[in-house]
Amino acid sequence: MKRLQLGKLPIDILRRTMLTGIGAHSDLVVEGPKPGLDFATVRLDGGFLLVSADPITGATEDIGRYAIHVSANDVATSGTRPMFAETVVLLAEGSSVEDAAGIGKQMHETAASLRMAIVGGHTEVTPGLKKTIVVVTAFGYAKKYVSSSGAKAGDTMMMTKFAGLEGTSEIATERADLLRGVPQAALRRAGSLISQVSVVEEAVAAFATGSIHAMHDCTEGGVLGAAYEMSLASGLGFVLRRELVPVLPETAKICEALSIDPLKLIGSGALLLAVRKGEEIRVEKALGGMCRVTRIGNFAEGARLVVGRGGSKLAMTDAPQDELWRVFRRPPLRG
Q1: I want to staple 151 with a disulfide (CB 3.0 to 4.6 A). Which of 129, 163, 206, 234 is the partner?
Q2: How far apart are CA 91 and CA 129, in angstroms?
Q3: Where does a domain end: 80, 109, 142?
Q4: How far apart are the first and last CA of the chain?
Q5: CA triplet 234, 240, 242: central angle to 5 degrees?
Q6: CATH code of the domain in which 172 resides
Q7: Angle in degrees, CA 188, 191, 192, rounded to 5
Q8: How far apart are CA 256 and CA 278, in angstroms?
Q9: In angstroms, what CA-CA distances link 225 with 238, 246, 280?
Q10: How would residue 335 be classed by pLDDT, with cut points 50, 70 and 90?
Q11: Which among 231, 243, 252 has a CA at the least distance from the CA of 311?
Q12: Is the domain of 53 the same as that of 170?
């Protein structure tokens, strides 16, 4: 019996297991379960219901904030603001009333900042659970939208902000014991990066330019995982130039200390964009006042290539396992 590795199921296994049957057929489903998609789309009178669900299984300190942001980001990659959320909080055995209250407060504050209403859910202390898990389903409504399956050959691949934002913050907060060689000031800056994990504003602004064919947020697997999933959903290849991907000094220090790749580190807060060729400046102007936006490659027919310094080329044949899981598996340092 083959044991699965931590993190998202490899796409070939996902197809052979969870996607072999998806319930009853409905003519209202426009986009259902498919590798690389951020959200499902259901046709409603006059528009579309956009739905996405995601768990938070790594973070503990800010789990309520991450949970709202990650699912909100998925819906926002449509170019539409998320409107509603359902929350499922599975508290670890031994959790306190204060633990539950803290998560509830985090979710409320985060949803309110995004103008989302929490409309229901479920909370329990779960037998046998060693670490609290929070799952959020976000909902939006749109008359027009884009999805990660819409990239075109020739589109410029652009990204907002920096690689590995979420992972940098989580590692600095949850596994500082592994980072004794990293200056405390850098760790404090790294931990504060949770303030940058939302992509809602930039996604809405990018979509409004009319120059966007597709968007995908850089969650598990980081920038490389997002590029792979977006190209897979769109039936394309890509050329991504590693040296063009922006990485914060704090992320670089932490990744160097842990010997991990910042481009494979979970990166909520960075948004991958497929921009119509020749219209890159329009997107840069639209986003320039709110965040950094960088051209990092292009979508094309053929292979999925990561070009390194000196022109070396690595063909991607699957989405990478996220580096966060490698870090969280490590035992605490002694002494």
Answers
A1: 234
A2: 7
A3: 142
A4: 38
A5: 150
A6: 3.90.650.10
A7: 90
A8: 36
A9: 12, 16, 23
A10: low
A11: 243
A12: no
Summarised one tens digit per residue, pLDDT across range 5-47 is 888 888 899 999 999 999 999 999 999 998 889 999 999 989 9
172 plus 290 within the same structural domain: yes
65 and 199 fall within a common domain: no
Phi, psi of 74 (to 5 degrees): -60, -45
Neighbours of 46 (CB within 10 A): 7
User: Could you report the per-residue pLDDT of 199-251, keeping only the tens digit for each?
Assistant: 999 999 999 999 999 999 999 999 999 999 999 999 999 999 999 999 999 99
Residue at 150 is within a domain: no
In a domain, 69, yes or no: yes
Tens of pLDDT, residues 167-183: 999 999 999 999 988 99
Q: How many domains does the chain have?
A: 2
Please tell me whether residues 72 and 178 are part of one structural domain.
no
- Nearest-angstrom CA–CA distance, 139 and 161: 25
Please indicate, yes or no, whether residues 171 and 297 belong to a single structural domain of this protein. Answer: yes
User: Is 3 among the domain residues?
Assistant: no
Q: Is residue 328 within 8 Å of 57, Cβ to Cβ?
A: no
User: What are the tens digits of pLDDT across the range 51-76?
Assistant: 999 999 878 889 999 999 999 999 99
Domain match, 62 and 179 both: no
Q: How many CB atoms lie within 10 A of CB 143?
A: 9
**Nearest residue to 55 via CA among 323, 196, 266:** 266
Alpha carbon distances (Å) from 103 to 49, 54, 268: 27, 16, 19
Average pLDDT along the chain: 95
Beta bridge partners of 140: 50, 82
Strands (E) across the chain are located at 29-31, 40-44, 47-56, 82-91, 117-125, 133-142, 156-160, 212-217, 237-241, 271-275, 293-300, 304-307, 313-315
Residue-number span of the structural domain to which 131 is assigned: 11-142
Task: Kindly tell me if the per-residue pLDDT of 310 is higher than 90.
Answer: no
Q: What is the CATH number of the domain that holds 80?
A: 3.30.1330.10
